[in-house]
Specification:
Elements: H1 3-19, H2 26-37, H3 44-55, H4 62-72, H5 84-94, H6 101-118, H7 121-135, E1 137-138, E2 146-147, H8 149-156, H9 162-170, H10 178-210, H11 212-219, H12 234-261, E3 264-267, H13 269-276, E4 288-290, E5 297-303, H14 309-321, E6 328-334, E7 338-340, H15 351-361, H16 373-383, E8 392-397, H17 409-418, E9 421-426, H18 440-444, E10 449-451, H19 455-465
Helix pairs in contact: 1-4, 2-3, 6-7, 7-8, 7-10, 9-10, 10-11, 12-14, 12-19, 16-17
Length: 468
């Protein structure tokens, strides 16, 4: 590859990383180019390691980096034949008659069985490439070929080989013991790796046919911290839950560092002036009042109706993970009426179980089970008038969609006026605020409303919320 082509490829690759959400600065991009000058560019493993060391900052970003790297710096071109023998084998597969598909499929399954037993990773990769060549292509519509992962995996069905593979590995040993468990786990990992190689090979072929940029947009998943709470799949929700507590620990560490830097309190004018008398009235030494660490209370008021329940749950999880940073944490939930749910979150208990109990036992439905912000704010102000004080940080969570019901702005205004700080986190994109039954504009005049669609925005907000 010529120097100009290499530079263009590098620029496009860095742009794709940024587009996928990886924070790659200009300095890091230049570091990557300098690293490329110090390695063997023909060694793809060195190139991958050099790029990763230069631009990947967090472990969760590595999967996205690897997928984009495989698209921009593919391990092979075309059919990927590495020798005349490989090329002949591939030609035989591509020219096979329909009647011989079963024979080719059986031959590939036999090869797959042998490779899974041997555990040869490079052989597994080559077999995935051959399998995609022979089984993954379709010419529909005529004149335009495409590639499909499911065609290969359905034809080879590697999971159906598991019983035969276990029998070969155990070789007469007693079934059901530790040896079988270890062998089963090992084979499952090898089968999963083969499936990943097939999927990567299909992406590579599609990228060659349709363009790398087009395939990158559809095949690269967004980073987990950029997944919208309201659109997260079941697997993404589970991953987001696992990220809550590490996020809380990281934020707590930052908070501790900030407090250590700010140990000095306000200037003690009287003592400073008195000390200056010894130097002719010149205040050579300033004296400060003792620093009093402030740990405010936190009140969370969250909409737990079906449309925003996932978002409210994540934020409540984070609030309780950070409860050590606050003197007191109280949680109130509402749908069309309000109830305090702090009792479900006992210290030392499982927050996930507490959220499940809250959904079943909390008295949050009064009339029809549709969101009624106005009535909920009125009930909160009447039943818990002392919940919000000048020491309290108030956090309201919800999409502000009122089903065209009364807003009760005076009740909300009264609660906000008593709070030390008050914020409203809205999981809807800002461009939808004020549309339909959204009362974001009206409530935004009473309390600062902040867009909080994903974990990245939630982390950014919590850093601002934490006291110093």
């Amino acid at each position: 590859m010529a120097a100009d082509g290499l530079i263009d490829r590098h620029v496009a690759f860095v742009g794709a990383l940024r587009g996928a959400g990886l924070p790659v600065s200009l300095a890091e991009s230049l570091d990557a180019t300098q690293a490329m000058a110090a390695i063997d560019l023909m060694d793809r493993r060195q190139l991958r390691a050099a790029y990763a060391a230069s631009v990947v900052k967090r472990a969760p970003h590595r999967a996205t980096f690897d997928r984009l790297f495989d698209l921009w710096w593919p391990p092979a071109v075309g059919d990927g034949s590495e020798s005349e023998g490989d090329a002949a084998d591939i030609d035989d597969m591509t020219e096979v008659e329909p009647a011989d598909l079963d024979a080719m499929r059986n031959a590939l399954r036999d090869q797959l069985r042998e490779v899974l037993l041997s555990g040869d990773d490079e052989a597994l990769r080559r077999l995935a490439r051959q399998s995609v060549t022979g089984l993954g292509r379709t010419d529909s519509p005529p004149g335009r070929q495409s590639w499909f992962t499911y065609r290969v995996l359905r034809a080879l069905s590697p999971e159906t080989l598991l019983a035969d593979l276990l029998k070969a590995i155990l070789d007469g040993d007693e079934r059901g013991g530790l040896a079988e468990k270890v062998a089963r786990q090992m084979l499952a990992e090898r089968i999963k790796k083969f499936e990943e190689y097939v999927e990567a090979e299909v992406r590579r072929r599609l990228a060659e046919d349709r363009g790398v940029e087009a395939i990158a947009k559809t095949s690269v998943k967004p980073l987990i911290e950029q997944v919208d709470f309201l659109r997260a799949s079941r697997d993404e929700i589970a991953e987001l839950r696992r990220r809550v507590y590490p996020l809380a620990r990281r934020l707590a560490t930052r908070l501790t560092a900030k407090r250590r830097l700010g140990r000095s309190g306000r200037l003690d004018v009287r003592r400073t002036v008195r000390a200056s008398l010894s130097s002719g009235g010149v205040p050579l030494t300033t004296i400060h009042k003792p620093h009093k660490p402030h740990k405010p209370e936190l009140v969370v008021l969250c909409d737990v109706s079906g449309s925003v329940a996932a978002f409210a749950h994540f934020t409540v999880l984070l609030a309780y993970a950070l409860r050590e940073q606050f003197a007191k944490v109280r949680v109130f939930a509402f749908v069309d009426t309000c109830d305090e749910v702090t009792r479900f979150f006992e210290r030392g208990g499982d927050v996930g179980d507490a959220l499940a109990r809250m959904a079943q036992e909390a008295n949050v439905v009064w009339f029809d089970g549709h969101s009624d912000y106005g009535h909920s704010f009125e009930v909160f102000a009447q039943k818990w008038p002392d919940a919000v004080t000048p020491k309290t940080s108030l956090l309201i969570l919800g999409d502000a969609r009122t089903n065209y019901r009364a807003l009760s702005l005076p009740s909300l205004r009264s609660v906000v006026r008593h709070a030390r700080r008050a914020y409203w986190l809205n999981p809807e994109p800002r461009q939808y605020w004020g549309s339909g039954d959204s009362a974001s504009s009206s409530y935004g005049d009473v309390i600062p409303m902040i867009e909080c669609r994903n974990a990245a925005q939630l982390e950014e907000f919590v850093e601002q919320l934490l006291p110093v």
